[in-house]
Amino acid sequence: MESSIGRIITYESISPSVLQYLEIRKLFITDTNGNCLIKADKLRISFSLYKYFFTEDFPIGSVYFENSTITYNQDKDAGLLKDAVKYC
């Protein structure tokens, strides 16, 4: 995923609950110059595997950031959101 979005992703741990959510702790996403774009103590994404495999409904129920900072530059980062949606 890093190479396709052109960003560096680091994290401390991932705690998956296979049927309900994915939780990532101490997440950092930086650009190739080392500028921090996303910093979050915790990112939790809830999802439905049923929706993903068996329906046309969007499988992500919620995205929760705890103690986070997001830096977004419309000119430089416009493709980032577009590319991230590909993984949903």
Structure explained in plain terms:
With 88 residues, the protein is of the alpha+beta class. The chain has 3 helices and 5 strands; from the N terminus they run αββββαβα. Strands 1, 2, 3, 4 and 5 form a 5-stranded antiparallel beta sheet that branches. A hairpin with a 3-residue loop joins strand 2 (13-17) and strand 3. The longest helix is centred in the C-terminal third of the chain and has 12 residues, at 74-85. It is globular and about 40 Å long. It starts with a helix and ends with a helix. The model has no long low-confidence stretch (mean pLDDT 84).
Salient structural properties:
alpha+beta, 47% strand, 88 residues, 5 strands
Task: Give a concise summary.
By secondary structure, this protein is an alpha+beta fold. Helices cover 25% and strands 47% of the residues.
Helix-strand layout with pairing:
Blueprint: H1 2-5, E1 8-10, E2 13-17, E3 21-30, E4 36-47, H2 49-54, E5 60-70, H3 74-85
Antiparallel strand pairs: 1-3, 2-3, 3-4, 4-5
